C-alpha cells in the first residue's frame, strides 16, 4: 500500500520524506559515496519506503538504516530495506538491543498496541552522548526519554539540524507511553528532553511526523504547556492515548464494522489496561466496554478524525 508522499529539502544533503501520520518521516542523509536513512515508516508502506529510498539514493548504495526508536511506525520498513540493500548497516538505540535480539514483541510494544512490525536485525548501537558519522555527516546522539524511554534524537551541529522524532513535534509530542502504566517519571523525563533541545538551539527541527520547522522556541513553548497539562491531568492523557491507538488502527484498515473494531479493542492489551483503569474494574462487563468505546469514538468523530455510520467506522485521514 502507498500513501501520498512529499519531500522537503532541509539542506543540500538532508531530505525529509513525509507520508501522512501512519508512517513516520524518513530522513535521507546523502554523502558522496553512500546514503543513510533515519526511520523507515510503518510496515504497510514498506514497499513504498523501499521505492522512495531507492529513488533518493540515485544510484548510490544505502549504507545505513538508523532508528530513533522502535515504535512500529518508525521501523516498519527496516526488514524490507535490509532485503533490498543486503550490505546496509542497521543502527538502533542501545537500550533496545536485547528486545530486538530476541524479538520480544512485548517489550517492543507491538503486542500491547496491536500493531505490526516485521522482524529485523541490527548491526550497530546508538549510544547517547557519542557521535557517529554517516554519509559524510557527523551526528551527535542524545537520549530522548518521555514518549519512549529508549528513544534517542540526533543533532548535526554544522547546520544545527535536530531529528527529534516523537520527542518534539511542531505542536506537541507523542503519547507518553510509560504513563499508561502509571509511570509518572515519564513527565520529568520528557521535560528533561525538552530542556536538552532548548540547550542545543537547533535552527531546524525534523519531527517524526509533520514537516520540518524553524520556529523551535514556539514548539518548545507549546510542548512545555502540554506537559504541564499532562502533569495536572494524567487521566486525560491516558484517554488521549486510547484515542490515538484506535485512530492508528483505523488509519491502517480505513473502514470496518463496529463489532470488528470492538473485538480488536478488547483484544489489544494497552486498550484493555486503559479500559480497566478508567472503568475502575479488572473485568468490565459488555455494556461498560461498549459505552467506553462509544465515548472514545464520539470524541474522534467530533474531531472529524473518523466518521460513524450505521454500524461502520470510517477513517477520515
Ligand atoms: Zn513513537
Please provide a written account of the structure:
By secondary structure, the protein is α/β, with parallel strands linked by helices. 39% of the residues lie in helices and 22% in strands. It has eleven helices and 15 strands. It has helices at residues 46-57, 72-75, 78-84, 97-101, 110-113, 185-200, 216-232, 234-253, 258-267, 269-279, 286-302, and strands at 6-11, 14-18, 26-30, 35-38, 62-66, 89-93, 124-126, 131-134, 137-143, 152-156, 161-165, 204-207, 255-257, 306-309, 312-315. It has a seven-stranded mixed β-sheet, covered by helices on one side. Strand 11 (161-165), helix 6 (185-200) and strand 12 form a beta-alpha-beta unit. The radius of gyration is 19 Å and the shape is globular. 44% of the residues are buried. The model has no long low-confidence stretch (mean pLDDT 94).
Amino acid at each position: 500500500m502507498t500513501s501520498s508522499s512529499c519531500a522537503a529539502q532541509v539542506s543540500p544533503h538532508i531530505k525529509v520524506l513525509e507520508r501522512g501520520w501512519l508512517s513516520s518521516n524518513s530522513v535521507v542523509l546523502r554523502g558522496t559515496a553512500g546514503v543513510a536513512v533515519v526511520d523507515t515508516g510503518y510496515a504497510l508502506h514498506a514497499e513504498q519506503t523501499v521505492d522512495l529510498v531507492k529513488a533518493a539514493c540515485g544510484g548510490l548504495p544505502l549504507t545505513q538504516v538508523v532508528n530513533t526508536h522502535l515504535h512500529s511506525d518508525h521501523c516498519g520498513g527496516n526488514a524490507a530495506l535490509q532485503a533490498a540493500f543486503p550490505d546496509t548497516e542497521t543502527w538502533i538505540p542501545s537500550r533496545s538491543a536485547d528486545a530486538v535480539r530476541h524479538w520480544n514483541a512485548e517489550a517492543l510494544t507491538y503486542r500491547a498496541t496491536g500493531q505490526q512490525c516485521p522482524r529485523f536485525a541490527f548491526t550497530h548501537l546508538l549510544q547517547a552522548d557519542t557521535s557517529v558519522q554517516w554519509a559524510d555527516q557527523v551526528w551527535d546522539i542524545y537520549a530522548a526519554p518521555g514518549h519512549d524511554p529508549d528513544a534517542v534524537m540526533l543533532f548535526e551541529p554544522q547546520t544545527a539540524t535536530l531529528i527529534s522524532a516523537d520527542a518534539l513535534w511542531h505542536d506537541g509530542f507523542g503519547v507518553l507511553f510509560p504513563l499508561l502504566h502509571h509511570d509518572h517519571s515519564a513527565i520529568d523525563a520528557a521535560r528533561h528532553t525538552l530542556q536538552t533541545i532548548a540547550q542545543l538551539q537547533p535552527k531546524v527541527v525534523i519531527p517524526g511526523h509533520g514537516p520540518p520547522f524553524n520556529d523551535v522556541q514556539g514548539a518548545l513553548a507549546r510542548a512545555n504547556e502540554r506537559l504541564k497539562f499532562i502533569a495536572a491531568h494524567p487521566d486525560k492523557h491516558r484517554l488521549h492515548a486510547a484515542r490515538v491507538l484506535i485512530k492508528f488502527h483505523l488509519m491502517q484498515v480505513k473502514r470496518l464494522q463496529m463489532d470488528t473494531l470492538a473485538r480488536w479493542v478488547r483484544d489489544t492489551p494497552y486498550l484493555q489496561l486503559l479500559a480497566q483503569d478508567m472503568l475502575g474494574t479488572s473485568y468490565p462487563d459488555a455494556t461498560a466496554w461498549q459505552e467506553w468505546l462509544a465515548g472514545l469514538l464520539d470524541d474522534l468523530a467530533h474531531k472529524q478524525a473518523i466518521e460513524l455510520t450505521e454500524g461502520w467506522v470510517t477513517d477520515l485521514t
